[in-house]
Protein backbone atom coordinates (compact mmCIF):
# COMPACT_ATOMS: atom_id res chain seq x y z
CA UNK A 1 0.00 0.00 0.00
CA UNK A 2 1.36 3.42 -0.97
CA UNK A 3 0.41 6.25 1.37
CA UNK A 4 -0.03 9.96 0.78
CA UNK A 5 2.75 11.99 2.49
CA UNK A 6 -0.16 13.53 4.43
CA UNK A 7 -1.17 10.16 5.88
CA UNK A 8 1.85 10.12 8.24
CA UNK A 9 3.31 13.62 7.99
CA UNK A 10 5.64 13.47 11.01
CA UNK A 11 8.62 11.21 11.70
CA UNK A 12 11.25 11.10 14.43
CA UNK A 13 14.72 10.82 12.93
CA UNK A 14 17.53 10.70 15.49
CA UNK A 15 17.23 13.79 17.68
CA UNK A 16 14.91 15.68 15.37
CA UNK A 17 11.21 15.56 14.64
CA UNK A 18 10.67 16.00 10.89
CA UNK A 19 7.43 17.89 10.23
CA UNK A 20 5.91 18.02 6.75
CA UNK A 21 5.39 21.76 6.14
CA UNK A 22 1.85 21.74 4.80
CA UNK A 23 1.91 25.49 4.24
CA UNK A 24 4.50 24.97 1.47
CA UNK A 25 2.41 22.45 -0.46
CA UNK A 26 1.77 21.95 -3.33
CA UNK A 27 4.77 24.01 -4.51
CA UNK A 28 7.31 22.00 -2.53
CA UNK A 29 7.46 18.92 -0.32
CA UNK A 30 9.54 20.29 2.58
CA UNK A 31 10.13 19.02 6.11
CA UNK A 32 10.86 21.30 9.09
CA UNK A 33 13.01 19.98 11.95
CA UNK A 34 12.08 20.48 15.61
CA UNK A 35 14.65 19.47 18.20
CA UNK A 36 12.68 20.40 21.34
CA UNK A 37 9.11 20.86 22.54
CA UNK A 38 9.21 24.64 22.06
CA UNK A 39 9.95 24.29 18.36
CA UNK A 40 7.26 21.62 18.10
CA UNK A 41 4.70 23.94 19.74
CA UNK A 42 5.69 26.74 17.37
CA UNK A 43 5.00 24.46 14.40
CA UNK A 44 1.53 23.73 15.82
CA UNK A 45 0.78 27.43 16.39
CA UNK A 46 1.87 28.32 12.87
CA UNK A 47 -0.35 25.56 11.48
CA UNK A 48 2.58 23.86 9.75
CA UNK A 49 0.77 20.61 10.46
CA UNK A 50 -2.86 19.83 11.22
CA UNK A 51 -5.19 17.11 12.47
CA UNK A 52 -3.45 13.73 12.65
CA UNK A 53 -0.12 15.49 12.07
CA UNK A 54 -0.68 17.30 15.35
CA UNK A 55 -1.40 14.04 17.17
CA UNK A 56 1.79 12.54 15.77
CA UNK A 57 3.72 15.67 16.63
CA UNK A 58 2.51 15.55 20.24
CA UNK A 59 3.53 11.91 20.54
CA UNK A 60 6.95 12.35 18.95
CA UNK A 61 7.54 15.45 21.10
CA UNK A 62 6.99 13.42 24.28
CA UNK A 63 9.17 10.64 22.87
CA UNK A 64 11.97 13.13 22.14
CA UNK A 65 11.73 14.94 25.46
CA UNK A 66 11.47 11.71 27.48
CA UNK A 67 14.72 10.53 25.91
CA UNK A 68 16.45 13.83 26.73
CA UNK A 69 15.13 13.87 30.35
CA UNK A 70 15.80 17.66 30.58
CA UNK A 71 12.24 18.88 30.98
CA UNK A 72 9.47 17.50 33.20
CA UNK A 73 6.83 15.95 30.94
CA UNK A 74 4.13 17.95 32.74
CA UNK A 75 5.79 21.11 31.46
CA UNK A 76 5.84 19.72 27.92
CA UNK A 77 2.13 18.88 28.29
CA UNK A 78 1.32 22.40 29.48
CA UNK A 79 3.09 24.00 26.53
CA UNK A 80 1.29 21.74 24.08
CA UNK A 81 -2.11 22.35 25.68
CA UNK A 82 -1.61 26.11 25.34
CA UNK A 83 -1.04 26.09 21.57
CA UNK A 84 -4.58 25.96 20.12
CA UNK A 85 -7.97 26.16 21.80
CA UNK A 86 -10.26 24.13 19.52
CA UNK A 87 -8.15 20.99 19.47
CA UNK A 88 -8.30 18.46 22.24
CA UNK A 89 -4.62 18.25 23.04
CA UNK A 90 -5.35 17.88 26.75
CA UNK A 91 -6.92 14.51 26.07
CA UNK A 92 -3.70 13.38 24.38
CA UNK A 93 -1.28 14.92 26.83
CA UNK A 94 -3.21 13.50 29.82
CA UNK A 95 -3.00 10.09 28.17
CA UNK A 96 0.77 10.33 27.82
CA UNK A 97 1.21 11.65 31.38
CA UNK A 98 -0.92 8.71 32.55
CA UNK A 99 1.33 6.24 30.76
CA UNK A 100 4.32 7.95 32.41
CA UNK A 101 2.78 7.43 35.83
CA UNK A 102 1.78 3.82 35.15
CA UNK A 103 5.39 2.63 35.45
CA UNK A 104 5.47 0.99 32.00
CA UNK A 105 8.32 2.16 29.76
CA UNK A 106 6.99 5.37 28.20
CA UNK A 107 8.77 4.80 24.91
CA UNK A 108 7.00 1.46 24.44
CA UNK A 109 3.65 3.01 25.29
CA UNK A 110 4.08 5.79 22.75
CA UNK A 111 5.35 3.47 20.02
CA UNK A 112 2.55 1.04 20.73
CA UNK A 113 0.02 3.82 20.43
CA UNK A 114 1.48 5.06 17.13
CA UNK A 115 1.42 1.57 15.63
CA UNK A 116 -2.17 1.07 16.74
CA UNK A 117 -3.11 4.50 15.38
CA UNK A 118 -1.73 3.64 11.95
CA UNK A 119 -3.66 0.38 11.80
CA UNK A 120 -6.82 2.11 13.03
CA UNK A 121 -6.58 4.76 10.32
CA UNK A 122 -6.25 2.09 7.64
CA UNK A 123 -9.31 0.29 9.03
CA UNK A 124 -11.17 3.62 9.12
CA UNK A 125 -10.46 4.23 5.42
CA UNK A 126 -11.61 0.69 4.62
CA UNK A 127 -14.87 1.19 6.53
CA UNK A 128 -15.47 4.47 4.67
CA UNK A 129 -14.88 2.72 1.34
CA UNK A 130 -17.75 0.33 2.14
CA UNK A 131 -20.15 3.29 2.28
CA UNK A 132 -19.38 4.25 -1.31
CA UNK A 133 -20.78 2.84 -4.52
CA UNK A 134 -19.39 2.55 -7.99
CA UNK A 135 -19.66 5.91 -9.75
CA UNK A 136 -20.08 7.99 -6.59
CA UNK A 137 -18.85 11.58 -6.63
CA UNK A 138 -17.89 12.59 -3.12
CA UNK A 139 -17.71 16.17 -1.90
CA UNK A 140 -15.00 16.87 0.67
CA UNK A 141 -13.78 19.96 2.54
CA UNK A 142 -10.34 20.92 3.81
CA UNK A 143 -8.04 17.91 4.07
CA UNK A 144 -8.40 14.56 5.81
CA UNK A 145 -4.69 13.76 6.07
CA UNK A 146 -4.19 11.06 3.53
CA UNK A 147 -7.40 9.15 4.18
CA UNK A 148 -9.17 10.00 0.92
CA UNK A 149 -6.54 8.46 -1.39
CA UNK A 150 -6.65 5.41 0.85
CA UNK A 151 -10.44 5.23 0.63
CA UNK A 152 -10.20 5.51 -3.16
CA UNK A 153 -7.58 2.72 -3.19
CA UNK A 154 -9.88 0.41 -1.21
CA UNK A 155 -12.71 1.27 -3.61
CA UNK A 156 -10.45 0.47 -6.56
CA UNK A 157 -9.71 -2.96 -5.09
CA UNK A 158 -13.46 -3.53 -4.83
CA UNK A 159 -13.81 -2.45 -8.49
CA UNK A 160 -15.70 0.73 -7.57
CA UNK A 161 -14.73 3.93 -9.34
CA UNK A 162 -15.18 7.06 -7.27
CA UNK A 163 -14.32 10.72 -7.82
CA UNK A 164 -14.13 13.79 -5.61
CA UNK A 165 -15.25 17.40 -5.56
CA UNK A 166 -12.85 19.36 -3.38
CA UNK A 167 -13.77 22.74 -1.85
CA UNK A 168 -10.77 25.05 -2.02
CA UNK A 169 -11.23 25.87 1.71
CA UNK A 170 -10.44 29.51 2.27
CA UNK A 171 -8.37 31.09 3.62
CA UNK A 172 -5.59 28.47 3.79
CA UNK A 173 -6.75 26.61 0.68
CA UNK A 174 -6.15 23.19 2.20
CA UNK A 175 -8.55 21.71 -0.35
CA UNK A 176 -6.70 23.09 -3.36
CA UNK A 177 -3.21 22.75 -1.93
CA UNK A 178 -3.41 19.47 -0.01
CA UNK A 179 -6.44 17.40 -0.99
CA UNK A 180 -6.31 18.00 -4.74
CA UNK A 181 -2.54 17.50 -4.55
CA UNK A 182 -2.65 14.14 -2.78
CA UNK A 183 -5.54 12.92 -4.95
CA UNK A 184 -3.69 13.94 -8.12
CA UNK A 185 -0.53 12.15 -6.91
CA UNK A 186 -2.63 9.02 -6.52
CA UNK A 187 -4.28 9.59 -9.93
CA UNK A 188 -7.77 9.93 -8.48
CA UNK A 189 -10.27 12.02 -10.43
CA UNK A 190 -11.04 15.24 -8.56
CA UNK A 191 -12.45 18.69 -9.28
CA UNK A 192 -11.82 21.82 -7.23
CA UNK A 193 -14.70 24.23 -6.52
CA UNK A 194 -14.84 27.45 -4.49
CA UNK A 195 -16.51 27.26 -1.08
CA UNK A 196 -19.47 29.22 -2.43
CA UNK A 197 -20.28 26.64 -5.14
CA UNK A 198 -21.42 23.82 -2.84
CA UNK A 199 -25.17 24.37 -3.18
CA UNK A 200 -24.86 24.74 -6.94
CA UNK A 201 -22.99 21.44 -7.47
CA UNK A 202 -25.47 19.72 -5.14
CA UNK A 203 -28.36 21.24 -7.08
CA UNK A 204 -26.80 19.96 -10.32
CA UNK A 205 -26.88 16.46 -8.74
CA UNK A 206 -23.14 16.16 -9.12
CA UNK A 207 -22.63 15.05 -5.49
CA UNK A 208 -23.69 11.65 -4.15
CA UNK A 209 -22.03 11.67 -0.70
CA UNK A 210 -20.12 14.07 1.54
CA UNK A 211 -17.05 12.91 3.51
CA UNK A 212 -15.20 15.27 5.84
CA UNK A 213 -12.81 14.85 8.73
CA UNK A 214 -13.11 16.28 12.24
CA UNK A 215 -10.66 18.03 14.54
CA UNK A 216 -12.67 17.22 17.65
CA UNK A 217 -15.41 14.68 18.31
CA UNK A 218 -17.58 15.46 21.34
CA UNK A 219 -19.12 12.73 23.52
CA UNK A 220 -22.57 13.32 21.99
CA UNK A 221 -21.35 12.97 18.40
CA UNK A 222 -21.10 16.68 17.55
CA UNK A 223 -17.90 17.57 15.74
CA UNK A 224 -15.63 20.58 15.43
CA UNK A 225 -13.99 20.81 12.03
CA UNK A 226 -12.54 23.40 9.67
CA UNK A 227 -14.79 26.42 9.18
CA UNK A 228 -17.26 25.71 6.38
CA UNK A 229 -18.04 22.14 7.42
CA UNK A 230 -21.22 23.19 9.21
CA UNK A 231 -22.75 24.90 6.20
CA UNK A 232 -21.90 21.96 3.97
CA UNK A 233 -23.74 19.72 6.46
CA UNK A 234 -26.78 22.04 6.39
CA UNK A 235 -26.76 22.06 2.58
CA UNK A 236 -26.35 18.27 2.46
CA UNK A 237 -29.49 18.00 4.60
CA UNK A 238 -31.34 20.38 2.24
CA UNK A 239 -30.39 18.17 -0.73
CA UNK A 240 -30.83 14.85 1.09
CA UNK A 241 -27.18 13.84 0.57
CA UNK A 242 -25.52 11.52 3.15
CA UNK A 243 -22.93 13.31 5.29
CA UNK A 244 -20.14 11.07 6.65
CA UNK A 245 -17.45 12.08 9.12
CA UNK A 246 -14.05 10.46 9.55
CA UNK A 247 -13.72 11.01 13.31
CA UNK A 248 -10.81 11.19 15.72
CA UNK A 249 -11.28 9.48 19.12
CA UNK A 250 -13.84 11.35 21.23
CA UNK A 251 -12.52 14.25 23.28
CA UNK A 252 -13.54 15.30 26.79
CA UNK A 253 -16.16 17.74 25.46
CA UNK A 254 -19.73 16.72 26.29
CA UNK A 255 -21.21 18.49 23.25
CA UNK A 256 -19.78 20.43 20.35
CA UNK A 257 -20.87 23.64 22.01
CA UNK A 258 -18.45 22.93 24.89
CA UNK A 259 -15.59 23.24 22.40
CA UNK A 260 -14.09 26.69 22.21
CA UNK A 261 -13.90 28.00 18.64
CA UNK A 262 -10.51 29.48 17.82
CA UNK A 263 -10.73 32.94 16.25
CA UNK A 264 -7.61 33.60 14.18
CA UNK A 265 -6.03 36.91 13.08
CA UNK A 266 -8.00 38.83 10.40
CA UNK A 267 -4.89 39.32 8.30
CA UNK A 268 -4.94 35.59 7.48
CA UNK A 269 -8.12 36.35 5.53
CA UNK A 270 -7.11 39.78 4.23
CA UNK A 271 -3.65 38.92 2.92
CA UNK A 272 -2.46 36.29 0.51
CA UNK A 273 1.22 35.34 0.44
CA UNK A 274 2.07 38.60 2.17
CA UNK A 275 0.09 40.78 -0.25
CA UNK A 276 -3.03 42.60 0.80
CA UNK A 277 -6.29 41.63 -0.91
CA UNK A 278 -8.38 44.18 0.91
CA UNK A 279 -8.64 47.95 1.13
CA UNK A 280 -6.60 49.70 3.83
CA UNK A 281 -8.33 49.53 7.18
CA UNK A 282 -10.52 46.54 6.30
CA UNK A 283 -11.89 44.48 9.16
CA UNK A 284 -12.45 40.74 9.07
CA UNK A 285 -13.75 37.95 11.28
CA UNK A 286 -12.10 34.54 11.04
CA UNK A 287 -13.49 31.76 13.20
CA UNK A 288 -11.20 28.89 12.18
CA UNK A 289 -13.60 26.06 13.04
CA UNK A 290 -17.29 25.44 13.36
CA UNK A 291 -19.48 22.89 15.10
CA UNK A 292 -21.59 20.42 13.16
CA UNK A 293 -24.26 18.98 15.45
CA UNK A 294 -24.70 15.20 15.44
CA UNK A 295 -28.22 15.47 13.97
CA UNK A 296 -26.65 16.54 10.67
CA UNK A 297 -24.24 13.60 10.55
CA UNK A 298 -25.53 10.53 8.71
CA UNK A 299 -22.73 8.33 9.96
CA UNK A 300 -19.65 8.67 12.14
CA UNK A 301 -16.75 6.60 10.85
CA UNK A 302 -14.90 6.10 14.08
CA UNK A 303 -11.23 5.63 14.70
CA UNK A 304 -10.94 2.56 16.89
CA UNK A 305 -7.47 2.40 18.33
CA UNK A 306 -7.01 -1.09 19.74
CA UNK A 307 -3.79 -1.57 21.69
CA UNK B 1 -25.60 63.05 -1.92
CA UNK B 2 -22.17 61.55 -2.47
CA UNK B 3 -22.10 58.35 -4.52
CA UNK B 4 -19.72 55.42 -4.53
CA UNK B 5 -17.63 55.29 -7.75
CA UNK B 6 -19.35 51.92 -8.24
CA UNK B 7 -22.81 53.53 -8.29
CA UNK B 8 -22.20 54.98 -11.79
CA UNK B 9 -19.00 53.34 -12.99
CA UNK B 10 -19.22 54.33 -16.67
CA UNK B 11 -19.22 57.76 -18.30
CA UNK B 12 -19.09 58.97 -21.89
CA UNK B 13 -16.47 61.66 -22.32
CA UNK B 14 -16.15 63.02 -25.85
CA UNK B 15 -15.46 60.07 -28.15
CA UNK B 16 -14.49 57.65 -25.40
CA UNK B 17 -16.41 55.54 -22.92
CA UNK B 18 -14.58 55.63 -19.58
CA UNK B 19 -14.99 52.29 -17.78
CA UNK B 20 -14.06 51.92 -14.11
CA UNK B 21 -11.71 48.93 -14.08
CA UNK B 22 -13.16 46.97 -11.17
CA UNK B 23 -10.47 44.30 -11.46
CA UNK B 24 -7.88 46.90 -10.33
CA UNK B 25 -9.75 47.83 -7.14
CA UNK B 26 -9.02 48.38 -4.31
CA UNK B 27 -5.35 48.97 -5.22
CA UNK B 28 -6.11 51.68 -7.75
CA UNK B 29 -9.05 53.63 -9.11
CA UNK B 30 -8.40 53.34 -12.84
CA UNK B 31 -10.60 53.96 -15.87
CA UNK B 32 -10.21 52.12 -19.19
CA UNK B 33 -11.19 53.89 -22.42
CA UNK B 34 -13.25 52.23 -25.14
CA UNK B 35 -13.66 54.07 -28.42
CA UNK B 36 -15.82 51.52 -30.27
CA UNK B 37 -18.25 48.69 -29.60
CA UNK B 38 -15.57 46.01 -29.98
CA UNK B 39 -13.51 47.48 -27.16
CA UNK B 40 -16.64 47.82 -25.06
CA UNK B 41 -17.53 44.15 -25.62
CA UNK B 42 -13.99 43.15 -24.69
CA UNK B 43 -14.35 45.00 -21.37
CA UNK B 44 -17.58 43.07 -20.69
CA UNK B 45 -15.98 39.71 -21.54
CA UNK B 46 -13.02 40.43 -19.29
CA UNK B 47 -15.38 41.39 -16.45
CA UNK B 48 -13.86 44.86 -16.13
CA UNK B 49 -17.33 46.01 -15.19
CA UNK B 50 -20.38 44.16 -13.88
CA UNK B 51 -24.09 44.46 -13.22
CA UNK B 52 -25.27 48.06 -13.58
CA UNK B 53 -21.90 48.96 -15.07
CA UNK B 54 -22.72 46.62 -17.92
CA UNK B 55 -26.11 48.24 -18.47
CA UNK B 56 -24.46 51.66 -18.59
CA UNK B 57 -21.76 50.35 -20.89
CA UNK B 58 -24.37 48.96 -23.30
CA UNK B 59 -26.20 52.28 -23.34
CA UNK B 60 -23.10 54.42 -23.79
CA UNK B 61 -21.87 52.04 -26.51
CA UNK B 62 -25.05 52.58 -28.52
CA UNK B 63 -24.80 56.32 -27.89
CA UNK B 64 -21.22 56.37 -29.15
CA UNK B 65 -21.88 54.19 -32.21
CA UNK B 66 -25.08 56.06 -33.12
CA UNK B 67 -23.07 59.30 -33.19
CA UNK B 68 -20.40 57.77 -35.40
CA UNK B 69 -22.95 56.17 -37.78
CA UNK B 70 -20.30 53.72 -39.10
CA UNK B 71 -21.85 50.49 -37.91
CA UNK B 72 -25.48 49.35 -38.12
CA UNK B 73 -26.89 49.28 -34.59
CA UNK B 74 -28.14 45.73 -35.15
CA UNK B 75 -24.52 44.65 -35.51
CA UNK B 76 -23.60 46.42 -32.27
CA UNK B 77 -26.50 44.64 -30.56
CA UNK B 78 -25.37 41.26 -31.88
CA UNK B 79 -21.85 41.75 -30.58
CA UNK B 80 -23.11 42.78 -27.15
CA UNK B 81 -25.54 39.86 -26.93
CA UNK B 82 -22.72 37.42 -27.63
CA UNK B 83 -20.49 38.52 -24.73
CA UNK B 84 -21.93 36.69 -21.71
CA UNK B 85 -24.67 34.06 -21.50
CA UNK B 86 -26.18 34.62 -18.02
CA UNK B 87 -26.89 38.31 -18.42
CA UNK B 88 -29.96 39.58 -20.16
CA UNK B 89 -28.30 41.90 -22.64
CA UNK B 90 -30.80 40.98 -25.33
CA UNK B 91 -33.53 42.66 -23.33
CA UNK B 92 -31.49 45.88 -23.28
CA UNK B 93 -30.30 45.75 -26.86
CA UNK B 94 -33.84 45.01 -28.12
CA UNK B 95 -35.03 48.03 -26.17
CA UNK B 96 -32.48 50.30 -27.82
CA UNK B 97 -33.16 48.88 -31.30
CA UNK B 98 -36.86 49.52 -30.61
CA UNK B 99 -36.18 53.15 -29.77
CA UNK B 100 -34.14 53.41 -32.96
CA UNK B 101 -37.09 52.17 -35.03
CA UNK B 102 -39.62 54.41 -33.24
CA UNK B 103 -38.38 57.47 -35.05
CA UNK B 104 -37.63 59.47 -31.86
CA UNK B 105 -34.07 60.81 -31.63
CA UNK B 106 -32.08 57.87 -30.26
CA UNK B 107 -29.73 60.08 -28.27
CA UNK B 108 -32.67 61.56 -26.33
CA UNK B 109 -34.10 58.11 -25.68
CA UNK B 110 -30.83 56.79 -24.30
CA UNK B 111 -30.17 59.87 -22.17
CA UNK B 112 -33.75 59.81 -20.88
CA UNK B 113 -33.33 56.16 -19.92
CA UNK B 114 -30.04 56.80 -18.11
CA UNK B 115 -31.53 59.69 -16.10
CA UNK B 116 -34.54 57.59 -15.17
CA UNK B 117 -32.26 54.70 -14.24
CA UNK B 118 -30.27 56.87 -11.85
CA UNK B 119 -33.42 58.13 -10.13
CA UNK B 120 -34.81 54.60 -9.93
CA UNK B 121 -31.63 53.30 -8.28
CA UNK B 122 -31.79 56.03 -5.66
CA UNK B 123 -35.46 55.17 -4.95
CA UNK B 124 -34.50 51.48 -4.77
CA UNK B 125 -31.85 52.19 -2.11
CA UNK B 126 -34.37 54.26 -0.16
CA UNK B 127 -36.93 51.47 -0.25
CA UNK B 128 -34.30 48.99 0.97
CA UNK B 129 -33.39 51.31 3.84
CA UNK B 130 -37.00 51.14 5.05
CA UNK B 131 -36.64 47.37 5.55
CA UNK B 132 -33.78 47.85 8.01
CA UNK B 133 -33.91 48.66 11.70
CA UNK B 134 -31.53 50.44 14.00
CA UNK B 135 -28.70 48.10 14.97
CA UNK B 136 -29.21 45.66 12.08
CA UNK B 137 -26.19 43.76 10.80
CA UNK B 138 -26.73 42.90 7.15
CA UNK B 139 -24.97 40.10 5.30
CA UNK B 140 -24.19 40.78 1.67
CA UNK B 141 -22.46 38.88 -1.14
CA UNK B 142 -20.43 40.09 -4.11
CA UNK B 143 -21.10 43.73 -4.88
CA UNK B 144 -24.30 45.68 -5.51
CA UNK B 145 -22.72 48.57 -7.45
CA UNK B 146 -22.85 51.40 -4.99
CA UNK B 147 -26.31 50.69 -3.57
CA UNK B 148 -25.18 49.58 -0.08
CA UNK B 149 -23.45 52.85 0.85
CA UNK B 150 -26.55 54.63 -0.38
CA UNK B 151 -28.82 52.40 1.73
CA UNK B 152 -26.62 53.11 4.75
CA UNK B 153 -26.81 56.83 4.01
CA UNK B 154 -30.63 56.73 3.93
CA UNK B 155 -30.56 54.78 7.22
CA UNK B 156 -28.25 57.39 8.75
CA UNK B 157 -30.72 60.12 7.80
CA UNK B 158 -33.43 58.14 9.57
CA UNK B 159 -31.15 57.83 12.63
CA UNK B 160 -30.70 54.08 12.14
CA UNK B 161 -27.23 52.64 12.53
CA UNK B 162 -26.54 49.59 10.40
CA UNK B 163 -23.45 47.51 9.70
CA UNK B 164 -22.49 44.89 7.15
CA UNK B 165 -20.91 41.46 6.94
CA UNK B 166 -19.33 41.07 3.52
CA UNK B 167 -18.49 37.68 2.01
CA UNK B 168 -15.17 37.87 0.22
CA UNK B 169 -16.78 36.24 -2.87
CA UNK B 170 -14.27 33.89 -4.48
CA UNK B 171 -12.72 33.76 -6.91
CA UNK B 172 -12.81 37.44 -7.93
CA UNK B 173 -13.15 38.72 -4.36
CA UNK B 174 -15.70 41.36 -5.29
CA UNK B 175 -16.79 41.46 -1.63
CA UNK B 176 -13.33 42.18 -0.29
CA UNK B 177 -12.18 44.35 -3.17
CA UNK B 178 -15.32 46.30 -4.03
CA UNK B 179 -17.95 46.14 -1.31
CA UNK B 180 -15.62 46.52 1.69
CA UNK B 181 -13.79 49.22 -0.26
CA UNK B 182 -16.87 51.31 -1.03
CA UNK B 183 -18.28 50.84 2.48
CA UNK B 184 -14.95 51.88 4.04
CA UNK B 185 -14.81 54.97 1.80
CA UNK B 186 -18.25 55.93 3.13
CA UNK B 187 -17.16 55.11 6.73
CA UNK B 188 -19.74 52.36 7.16
CA UNK B 189 -18.92 49.60 9.64
CA UNK B 190 -18.28 46.33 7.80
CA UNK B 191 -16.57 43.00 8.43
CA UNK B 192 -15.25 40.65 5.78
CA UNK B 193 -15.78 36.89 6.12
CA UNK B 194 -14.83 33.99 3.85
CA UNK B 195 -17.63 32.40 1.84
CA UNK B 196 -17.48 29.32 4.06
CA UNK B 197 -18.25 31.27 7.27
CA UNK B 198 -21.85 32.20 6.45
CA UNK B 199 -23.56 29.48 8.50
CA UNK B 200 -21.27 30.15 11.45
CA UNK B 201 -21.99 33.90 11.63
CA UNK B 202 -25.70 33.17 11.23
CA UNK B 203 -25.49 30.59 14.00
CA UNK B 204 -23.78 33.18 16.22
CA UNK B 205 -26.81 35.43 15.61
CA UNK B 206 -24.60 38.10 14.12
CA UNK B 207 -26.81 38.52 11.02
CA UNK B 208 -30.26 40.13 11.07
CA UNK B 209 -30.96 40.49 7.34
CA UNK B 210 -29.44 39.47 4.02
CA UNK B 211 -29.33 41.89 1.07
CA UNK B 212 -27.90 40.84 -2.28
CA UNK B 213 -28.18 42.08 -5.83
CA UNK B 214 -29.19 40.16 -8.94
CA UNK B 215 -27.79 39.94 -12.43
CA UNK B 216 -31.02 38.66 -13.90
CA UNK B 217 -34.60 38.68 -12.60
CA UNK B 218 -36.90 36.14 -14.24
CA UNK B 219 -40.62 36.77 -14.78
CA UNK B 220 -41.54 34.46 -11.88
CA UNK B 221 -39.24 36.19 -9.38
CA UNK B 222 -36.33 33.74 -9.51
CA UNK B 223 -32.96 35.47 -9.76
CA UNK B 224 -29.55 34.70 -11.23
CA UNK B 225 -26.75 36.23 -9.21
CA UNK B 226 -23.07 35.69 -8.44
CA UNK B 227 -22.24 32.09 -7.52
CA UNK B 228 -22.78 31.61 -3.78
CA UNK B 229 -26.01 33.58 -3.57
CA UNK B 230 -28.13 30.42 -3.70
CA UNK B 231 -26.45 28.77 -0.74
CA UNK B 232 -26.70 31.96 1.30
CA UNK B 233 -30.44 31.97 0.56
CA UNK B 234 -30.75 28.33 1.67
CA UNK B 235 -28.83 29.08 4.88
CA UNK B 236 -30.92 32.20 5.53
CA UNK B 237 -34.02 30.00 5.33
CA UNK B 238 -32.45 27.52 7.78
CA UNK B 239 -31.79 30.36 10.24
CA UNK B 240 -35.05 32.19 9.56
CA UNK B 241 -33.27 35.36 8.40
CA UNK B 242 -35.05 37.63 5.86
CA UNK B 243 -33.46 37.52 2.40
CA UNK B 244 -33.88 40.68 0.31
CA UNK B 245 -32.88 41.15 -3.32
CA UNK B 246 -32.10 44.43 -5.05
CA UNK B 247 -33.42 43.49 -8.50
CA UNK B 248 -32.78 44.73 -12.03
CA UNK B 249 -35.83 45.05 -14.32
CA UNK B 250 -37.21 41.60 -15.19
CA UNK B 251 -35.62 39.86 -18.17
CA UNK B 252 -37.29 37.75 -20.82
CA UNK B 253 -36.65 34.52 -18.88
CA UNK B 254 -39.82 32.86 -17.60
CA UNK B 255 -38.09 31.20 -14.64
CA UNK B 256 -34.56 31.21 -13.27
CA UNK B 257 -34.01 27.80 -14.79
CA UNK B 258 -34.45 29.30 -18.25
CA UNK B 259 -31.31 31.38 -17.65
CA UNK B 260 -28.14 29.77 -18.92
CA UNK B 261 -25.42 29.60 -16.25
CA UNK B 262 -22.07 30.81 -17.54
CA UNK B 263 -19.23 28.37 -16.79
CA UNK B 264 -15.94 30.26 -16.73
CA UNK B 265 -12.35 29.00 -17.25
CA UNK B 266 -10.97 26.84 -14.38
CA UNK B 267 -7.77 28.86 -14.25
CA UNK B 268 -9.74 31.79 -12.80
CA UNK B 269 -10.19 29.60 -9.71
CA UNK B 270 -6.77 27.91 -9.80
CA UNK B 271 -4.61 31.01 -10.25
CA UNK B 272 -4.36 34.20 -8.29
CA UNK B 273 -2.73 37.25 -9.86
CA UNK B 274 -1.03 35.01 -12.39
CA UNK B 275 0.38 32.60 -9.80
CA UNK B 276 -0.85 29.05 -9.49
CA UNK B 277 -2.57 28.07 -6.22
CA UNK B 278 -3.10 24.47 -7.23
CA UNK B 279 -0.98 21.45 -8.03
CA UNK B 280 -0.01 20.91 -11.66
CA UNK B 281 -2.80 19.26 -13.60
CA UNK B 282 -5.55 20.30 -11.16
CA UNK B 283 -9.09 20.39 -12.50
CA UNK B 284 -11.75 22.87 -11.42
CA UNK B 285 -15.38 23.70 -12.10
CA UNK B 286 -16.43 27.34 -12.05
CA UNK B 287 -20.10 28.12 -12.61
CA UNK B 288 -20.05 31.92 -12.32
CA UNK B 289 -23.70 32.35 -11.31
CA UNK B 290 -26.44 30.41 -9.61
CA UNK B 291 -30.21 30.59 -9.49
CA UNK B 292 -32.06 31.50 -6.31
CA UNK B 293 -35.70 30.44 -6.64
CA UNK B 294 -38.35 32.99 -5.67
CA UNK B 295 -39.54 30.84 -2.72
CA UNK B 296 -36.28 31.69 -0.92
CA UNK B 297 -36.66 35.45 -1.46
CA UNK B 298 -38.44 37.29 1.35
CA UNK B 299 -38.80 40.46 -0.67
CA UNK B 300 -37.85 41.71 -4.10
CA UNK B 301 -36.78 45.35 -4.04
CA UNK B 302 -37.60 46.27 -7.59
CA UNK B 303 -36.04 48.83 -9.85
CA UNK B 304 -38.91 50.88 -11.25
CA UNK B 305 -37.65 52.90 -14.16
CA UNK B 306 -40.28 55.52 -14.92
CA UNK B 307 -39.63 57.54 -18.06
Structure notes:
The structure is a homodimer of 307-residue chains. The first copy, chain A, is built from ten helices and 14 strands. In chain A, 38% of the residues lie in helices and 17% in strands. Chain A has helices at 37-45, 51-68, 73-81, 89-102, 106-130, 147-157, 174-185, 198-203, 229-238, 267-270, and strands at 10-13, 16-20, 31-34, 137-140, 163-167, 190-193, 209-213, 216-217, 223-226, 243-246, 271-272, 275-276, 289-292, 299-301. With 307 residues, the first copy, chain A, is an alpha/beta fold. In chain A, helix 2 packs antiparallel against helix 5 (106-130). At the A-B interface, helix 7, strand 6, helix 8 and helix 9 of A face helix 7, strand 6, helix 8 and helix 9 of B.
If classified by CATH, what would the architecture of the largest domain in chain A be?
Answer: 3-Layer(aba) Sandwich
Uncertain segments of chain A of ≥5 residues (pLDDT<50)? none
Distance between the termini of chain A: 22 Å
Oligomer: homodimer
What is CATH's topology name of the largest domain in chain A?
Answer: Rossmann fold
Radius of gyration of chain A: 19 Å
Brief write-up:
With 307 residues, chain A is of the alpha/beta class. Chain A contains 10 helices and 14 strands.
Key attributes of the depicted protein:
2 domains; 307 residues; homodimer; six-stranded parallel beta sheet; 14 strands; alpha/beta; three-stranded antiparallel beta sheet; Rossmann fold; Four Helix Bundle (Hemerythrin (Met), subunit A)
Amino acid sequence: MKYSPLFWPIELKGNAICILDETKLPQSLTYIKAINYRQACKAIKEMKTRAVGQVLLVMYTFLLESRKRNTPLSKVAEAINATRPTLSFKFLTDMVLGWGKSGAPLEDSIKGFLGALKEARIRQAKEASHLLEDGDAVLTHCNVSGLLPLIAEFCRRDKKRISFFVTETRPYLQGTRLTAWELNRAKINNTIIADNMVAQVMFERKIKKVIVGADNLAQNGDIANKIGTYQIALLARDFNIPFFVLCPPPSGAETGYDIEIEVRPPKELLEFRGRSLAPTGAKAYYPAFDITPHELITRHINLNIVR
